[in-house]
Amino acid sequence: MLDIVIRIALLCCSLAMLGLIYRVIKGPAIPDRVIALDAVGVNLVAITALISIVLHSSAFLEIILLIGILAFIGTIAFAKYLEKGVIIERDSHR
Amino acid sequence: MSFLHLAILSPLIYSLFMIFFKKFHRIHTGWFILPLPILLFIYFLSFLPVTSNQKMVTETFNWIPSLGINFTAKADGLSLLFALLITGIGALVVFYSIYYLDRMKEKLPSFYVYLLLFMGAMLGVVLSDNLIVMYAFWELTSFSSFLLIGYWYGREQSRYGAQKSMLITVFGGLAMLGGIILLYIMTRTFSISEIAAESHSIWGNSLFIPALLCILLGAFTKSAQFPFYIWLPDAMEAPTPVSAYLHSATMVKAGIYLVARFTPVFGDSGVWFWLVSGIGLITLTWGSIFAAKQTDLKGILAFSTVSQLGLIMSLLGVGSAALHYADLDENIYIVAVSAAIFHLINHATFKGSLFMAVGIIDHETGTRDIRKLGGLMTFMPITFTVSIIGAFSMAGIPPFNGFLSKEMFFTGMVRVTEMDLFHLETWGILFPVIAWVASVFTFVYSMILIFKTFTGNVQLEKLDRQPHEAPLGMLIPPVILVSLVVIFGLFPNLLSDSLISPAMAEILPGLLGAGEEFTVHISSWHGFTIEVFMTLGVVILGIILYRTFPKWKTLYSKIPERMSLFRLYDQLVEGAQSGSYKLTKSFMTGSIHSYLVYIFAFFIFILTATLIGKGALKVDTGNVSAIGIYEWILALFVAAGAISILFVKSRMTSIILLGAVGYTVSLFYVLFRAPDLALTQLVIETISVALFLVCFYHLPKLRKYETRIRFKLTNALISIGVGAVVTVMALSAHSNKLFDSISKYYVENTYEKAAGKNMVNVILVDFRGFDTLFEITVLAIASLGIYGMIKLRGNRRKEG
Fold it and tell me: Rounded to an integer, what distance in angstroms lies between the CA atom of residue B766 and that of residue B760?
């Protein structure tokens, strides 16, 4: 029973991924793509979690956390880049 | 190391002391050099009693015994003849150069260092029995000759001549090295005497003819044979003592020596006979015809040297036929060999004296151009006497030694017609005819040399200085040589037992029984034979041709300049330069794109060829695990991401797509149960995407246009090819798995021996920690490099 549920969930996630990838490729503006990429990250979290259930393993929990952090940092960096043109600003007094 | 070795090396060692002589400005450096060749000459004379009894002196000094390369010095009849020529004429040339080269104006130490180098190298060539040692000395002669020709390196012509002679003689030298190696492969020894003793075993070997050709190429280039004679006239830019020494008496005879030395090895083959005698005759005729055209005295002498060397070479070729007739008593062909050796000595004497006489004329009048010279007889009576004797000897007029050797030359050539091998029944008649024609021209240019210079009207206004007789010291060496010309002409049998017969015994071994020796009897008169009439004909026709020379001289200008071998050489050198430049230009385009095309095309080619050639192309699906739905989906994602990178317009999009591919790959790691890899992949992918974005942002404004990647068929073909080849290779590698994995050991021992449960990390830091160390180093270098590139940019700007 659980097996089937997980498969359905994975399929849904994959479909969502496909849609997001379509948006990444197509997305008329950069922010569209960035948001799509952020969502890809969230989806990755879900997929990793589901796969680790399938594989009966607890070795991938760090990955879930890492994806979360990276997606956050990445999105923030992109946002800053789009806003200011730089990611790390120089010290103003130099 | 014996005394003989020391004698060979003494000029080289002595040249090291030249730095001390530099200080003595008041005494001409040549005086310090002079004793050495004289002593060596006397030392080599002491070998005469040994060699005239058909014995030899052999001394071995181990150099590289494990490779069979030992410095074996061997003084036999042939070597001794050359050694005496080298040291004797060497002494005279050093003496002459003392008066020829100015103490103050010239860089004397370097001149004498080069000359001593040359002398030692030449002694080494003729006295070495080991082929590799001989080759080393051989190249040293080329090298020192290069230095001597370019002695006045300020002149363009000197540099050109030096380069030309270097290129041609080193080309021949390398060919000779090839021949030596082939001989070694056949006989397993580098010793000439052993090779000659074993020569019967190598006849018919498939390497025999290539070895023969390579050795002959070396001999022909060194001895200025057709068509390699072209370096010799340009070598006349050297100081005259050098021309007298190297380019008439010694170095150009190294090739003759080589041919004589190898006659016992190769002499029995028809190829050898035809090449040596044929090329010799061509050189003889060609050189003599073109000598008459020259207007520069040294040019005449250069071409005449070429021609006379051809004469000696053809005699050696004809003489090699004597090896076919084992019977000594009726062997009428050995006369060619004795003529060759006799003429070798004669040529060294009269050509040396002629060069020195020309040097005197150049020195005392300031020109060597026969159009400016004339009527010098009254100004320089001694030089005139020297020249006329030398030139008459060269032309073959009695009673000088050239007459005798020319008679013997004719005898040898006439006897070719009686041979019944190598198709000589039909072609043999050409030999005496060509030889006779060449002798006529020899007569003509000898007369031009003498009479255009010394008779006729004096053209004082064309001369740089008032002509006068040379100082006594300058005259002594040519006078000595010329008196030898007369002495050998009147008493030729002085040489026959002491020098000629022992040398012949070396060239034609096997013809002599025990205790026998060649009886050479040279007489100036042997009745009304065909040779006498040939000589008479040469003189009569020669006089007629000389008288009418101005009328037919214009024939020379009819020969098109483009046909000349000199032009051909220039075009060859230039063509090689521009051709290689064009070739390099054609593929070294400077664009990375084309280099990548070469690399990948080669990659595809070589891997396909190997896979097919080795029969490794095999796809075996028996060992493959089933592909689940998740793998399909992920593979679809990766493929979709990778392919869409090719088609997107914006660079930003392609970076993001690259990131997406990277993240999907990390999912693959998850799926294939590699949590550590997945972790690292995620972090690294994020960082590298960030770095790409940084690069993207800093692109210069001008080039910031965004276009789709242009389609190119080559690129598409190559990338598809690389992908296909790698895929096929991976499949084949999987199908051809030969051994089990060693990972079982790690699985069993990770906790047992290394006290860890994470196997990947235990491998990284414990089982194979060494790799990790250096990957840390790589990262350190990369970061330092980046830091350096960013920080040091300003400094470079300041310097620039």
Answer: 10
In this structure, how many other beta carbons lie within 10 angstroms of the beta carbon of residue B114?
22
Q: How far is B587 from chain A (nearest CA, A)?
A: 38
- Of the residues A47, A53, A75, the best mutation for testing chain B's interface (the one with the most B CB atoms within 10 Å of its CB) is A47
CA distances from residue B424 to A68, A77, B263, B419, B428 in whole angstroms, order as listed: 99, 96, 19, 6, 4
**pLDDT tens-digit readout, B403-438:** 888 888 888 888 877 777 766 667 777 888 888 899
Domain-wise residue ranges, chain B = 560-588, 592-740, 741-800
Task: Please check whether residue B90 is in contact with residue B119, taking contact to mean a CB–CB distance below 8 angstroms.
Answer: yes
What is the mean pLDDT, run by run of 10 residues, along chain B of 800 residues?
A: 86 84 75 90 89 82 87 88 92 91 82 92 92 93 92 91 92 93 90 84 84 91 89 89 86 91 86 89 90 87 92 89 68 81 90 90 84 82 89 86 86 79 72 89 90 80 73 89 89 80 80 65 67 86 87 75 78 92 90 91 92 81 80 87 83 81 87 88 86 76 60 87 92 81 88 87 91 95 90 60
**C-alpha to C-alpha distance for B794 and B680, rounded to whole angstroms:** 35
Phi first, then psi, for residue B57 (nearest 5°) are: -110, 125
CB contact under 8 A, A73 and B644: no
> If one looks up domain B592-740 in CATH, what number appears?
1.20.120.1200
The helix or strand, by DSSP H or E, that contains position B403, with its residue range, turns out to be: helix B401-416
Give bridge partners of residue B69 from the DSSP assignment. B64
> Is the CB of residue B70 less than 8 Å from the CB of residue B48?
no
Upstream peptide bond of B399 is cis (omega within 30 degrees of 0) = yes
pLDDT in tens, A8-43: 998 898 889 888 888 877 778 888 888 888 898 888
Which residue of A17, A62, A81 is in closest CB contact with B637? Answer: A17
Report pLDDT digits (tens) over B377-405: 888 888 888 899 999 999 888 778 888 88
The secondary structure of B760-790 as a DSSP string is HHHIIIIITHHHHHHHHHHHHHHHHHHHHHH
Distance of CA B60 to the CA centre of its chain: 27
- Rounded to the nearest 5 degrees, what angle is found at the Cα of B125, between the Cα atoms of B122 and B131? 160
Tokens of B56: 């030899």
Mind listing the pLDDT tens digit for each residue in A64-82?
Answer: 888 888 888 888 888 887 8
The residue type found at B151 is: Y
Mind telling me how many Å the CA of B646 is from chain A's nearest CA? 12
Which SS3 state, helix, strand or coil, does residue B252 take? helix
Long-range contacts of B737-740 (CB under 8 A, 24+ apart): B737/B623
Q: Note the pLDDT of residue B800.
A: 45
Q: Does A55 touch chain B (CB under 8 A)?
A: yes
> Taking a C-beta distance cutoff of 8 angstroms, is the pair B291, B449 a contact?
no
In contact, B321 and B470? CB cutoff 8 Å = no
- Chain A residues in contact with B666 (beta carbon < 8 A): 44, 63
Return the DSSP state at A29: S
- Hey, what amino acid is at B109? P
pLDDT computed for residue B560 by the predictor: 63
Question: How many residue contacts between A and B have a Cβ separation below 8 Å?
Answer: 76
Interface of B with A (CB under 8 A): 629-630, 633, 637, 640-641, 644, 648, 652-653, 656-657, 659-660, 663, 666-667, 670-671, 673, 675, 678-679, 682-683, 686, 689-690, 693-694, 697
Q: Which of B136, B93, B114, B135 is nearest to B11 (CA)?
A: B114
Question: Cβ contacts (< 8 Å) between B631 and chain A: which residues?
Answer: none
Distance CA(B408)–CA(B311), nearest Å, equals 11
Quick check: B640 and A21 CB within 8 A?
yes
Closest partner residue to A30 (CB to CB) among B629, B633, B652 is: B652
